Amino acid sequence: MLDVVKPEILVVDDDPEVCETLVDLLESSGFRAQAVPDGLAMAARLDQRAFSLVIIDLRLKKEDGIELARQLRTHSRIPIIILTGQGTAADRVLGLETAVDDFVAKPFDNRELIARIRALLRRSAGTGMPRSLRADRLSHERYLFGDWTLNITARELLRSDGSPCDLTHGEFALLEVFVLHANRVIDREQLLLKTRSAQSDAVSRTIDVLVSRLRRKIEDDPDNPRFICTERGAGYRFAANVVRC
């Protein structure tokens, strides 16, 4: 019988008690976990082995968790959760600009944190695997719009030349909703529910930030979008001819 490979999570926090608590919680919830105190140790550990998710404290003594997330995102699509004792809307918006996938306020509820981790891991399933290890691509759920192909099964967006467009988990979730509900007006509250339902303290501004970032990646002219249209006072509409292939 084959052993089940447990997802491994890296915790970045300079409070030893928080690290011990998180590692114990994660391991008792079916994960493997390690903890490091700073960005330097985080980078070294990530070079040594593949982790499934990283949890970073927002206010480290000598570093900014958002800055660490920004640095990590420049070369990795690994899911990132920020732990914050403040939990303000400004922090969340700033985090979204740097591709943080979720925020959890301290003190956190253990069950909520584990639920958010599992939700992120489900959404990221397959993105870090070699193509040879993924399921048969012929069975994948794909949608064409404009010069783009959205592969929902593999969770990737491809240009017409086959090159990938890197999306964060939030951006991908938003695009998936748009594509599956093309040419319908969707208000911000519905988009929040569909894309970040685990984040109970999310705000409407969160969606506006995600839309802005997604436009910069898929629109030829983000200031005059072809696909993601703003319906004033109502929300957004994905104005595209979407074809399943």
UniProtKB/TrEMBL annotation:
SUPFAM superfamilies in alphabetical order: C-terminal effector domain of the bipartite response regulators, CheY-like
Localization per record: Cytoplasm
Known DNA-binding region: 140-240
InterPro entries reported in the protein's UniProt record: CheY-like_superfamily, OmpR/PhoB-type_DNA-bd, Sig_transdc_resp-reg_C-effctor, Sig_transdc_resp-reg_receiver, WalR-like, WH-like_DNA-bd_sf
Keywords: Cytoplasm, DNA-binding, Phosphoprotein, Transcription, Transcription regulation, Two-component regulatory system
GO process terms (BP): regulation of DNA-templated transcription
Chief place of localization: cytoplasm
All copies of domain OmpR/PhoB-type, residue ranges: 140-240
Keyword Protein biosynthesis in record: no
PROSITE patterns: OMPR_PHOB, RESPONSE_REGULATORY
Domain Response regulatory: 8-121
CDD domains with a match to the protein in the record: trans_reg_C
Protein name, per record: Response regulator
